[in-house]
Design a protein that fits this description.
It contains 16 helices and 10 strands. With 439 residues, it is an alpha/beta fold. Helix 10 links the parallel strand 5 and strand 6.
């Protein structure tokens, strides 16, 4: 009887925890309807909670210090299944850069979610330990099954591999090795990056192939601008044929590596629409996976078109319509992915801004995209990958074994990806050109 009670109690506690945490209150920079919290009171007290319960969608207003405190309490991905809802992606407010008087608020979906906030916090420590380890075990199982899937795919396509010309096979193998050495360096200690995770490794590997092919077919000219290079690691790989980029534009301060920093003339901080550069400033603009983080893409493209010189080119990649469904869009991405559309949609959108499509292609076809979809939630919404990445990166021997594992898993899929991703793939890449009125 005691065992039954313990089991039922445990199930109820986990259910309460999961119910409270999956629809966790989202961060929003806009003021909505609801009670205003007393500015002299810096904590969510029982009194303010009771007052908030009078409202169907209670909210908790905060200033900058409170935002920072909440961000530290609920930081991703150290806790399972936590995300700030209603993020604005590329346009998200950077809490650390806001003035101390900045006001914002947490909006709860219902009264029940607000009431469950306190028991969830009390249960946080013991259940997070349990769920993080459970997630890690499930993640490792998914990776193992994905490996088997890719090896079976390799066996089925042995004849196709034989038909690939040796020069192409050599070129693609060299590309693979370069990415592998960048994402899983043999020497060093410490946690491996997210790009060493199996799904993301192939994600960036395939995208990089598209960029390099497009750059060889449509060579860029200066002056050039790279929008959203972050720390420059991916740009260093994808834009390898481009020896020098005049400007990088980031929305936040990132620490560039020495090799990446030397590729850029200057790094600016701001957004596309901030009028940092005068019209007609650039012959080439690069955007690596930025378009799926811009809510108003048509407005952004209009501004980008104005930044291009006549005959200037825009090189960009993003998620296609293959990234779809409630699980991927609402739960895994927390509603912060936009414009996951087919190439035809992008072609029409660019045409409305006077940008002619020169090149468009997909990458990361089935079954490679299936692996990314299966591991995406574990890698981005749980601590599973970070736990595994710390262990793998601790010794050179483990790093070499992981590099060998990724090679065995992905080499065949990579060699065949261009052939398989003709009509559909998880990623796409396009080159569009502004009309040259002088021609």
């Amino acid at each position: 009887m005691l065992g039954l009670l313990i089991t039922v109690g445990t199930v109820l506690l986990v259910a309460i925890y999961a119910y409270a945490i999956l629809p966790f209150p989202y961060f929003t920079p806009h003021m909505g309807a609801g009670p205003v919290k007393d500015e002299s009171n810096k904590r969510l007290t029982l009194l303010t909670l009771l007052k908030a319960l009078r409202h169907p969608r209670p909210r908790w207003e905060m200033d900058h210090a409170e935002i920072s405190r909440m961000m530290s309490l609920f930081r991703e991905p150290e806790r399972p299944y936590v995300s700030w809802r209603n993020s604005s992606g590329y346009y998200d407010l950077q809490a650390g850069s806001q003035d101390s008087a900045t006001q914002s608020c947490l909006v709860f979906r219902s009264r029940l979610f607000l009431v469950l906030l306190w028991p969830r916090l009390m249960l946080d420590r013991p259940l997070s330990w349990f769920l993080n380890r459970l997630n890690l075990a499930a993640f490792c199982l998914v990776i193992a099954l994905s490996y088997i899937l890719m090896r079976l795919s390799a066996l089925r396509n042995k004849q196709r591999i034989k038909n690939i010309s040796e020069p192409l096979k050599y070129r693609l193998s060299a590309h693979f090795t370069q990415h592998l050495e960048a994402f899983v360096p043999a020497e060093g200690r410490g946690e491996l990056s997210i790009f060493a995770e199996p799904g993301y490794f192939f994600f960036k590997l395939a995208e990089g192939r598209l960029f390099r092919q497009a750059l060889s077919c449509f060579p860029p000219k200066g002056p050039s601008l790279d929008i959203g290079p972050d720390d420059g690691v991916i740009s260093l790989l994808h834009l390898a044929p481009v020896l020098f980029i005049d400007y990088g534009l980031n929305t936040s301060d990132y620490a560039f590596s020495g090799a990446a920093r030397s590729k850029y003339g200057a790094i600016k901080k701001g957004f596309i629409e901030d009028d940092i550069f005068p019209n007609g400033s650039f012959s080439s603009i690069f955007m690596i996976h930025v378009v799926d983080h811009i809510p108003d893409l048509e407005g952004a493209l209009k501004h980008l078109a104005s930044l291009l010189k006549p005959g200037g080119r825009l090189y960009f990649s993003g998620l296609s319509h293959d990234f779809n469904g409630w699980w991927l869009e609402r739960i895994c991405a927390a509603g912060a992915v936009w414009n996951n559309r087919p190439i035809t949609w992008y072609r029409d959108l660019c045409a409305r801004q006077g940008l002619e499509t020169l090149h468009a292609s997909y990458c990361q076809a089935v079954p490679g995209n299936m692996v990314w979809k299966a591991t995406y939630a574990f890698a981005m919404k749980t601590a599973a990958w970070r736990q595994l990445a710390r262990w793998l990166g601790a010794t050179s021997s483990r790093r070499r074994k992981w590099a060998s594992f990724l090679t065995s898993m992905w080499m065949t899929a990579f060699l065949l990806d261009e052939e398989l991703a003709v009509d559909r793939g998880l990623n796409f890449m396009m080159v569009v050109q502004k009309a040259d009125q002088s021609a």
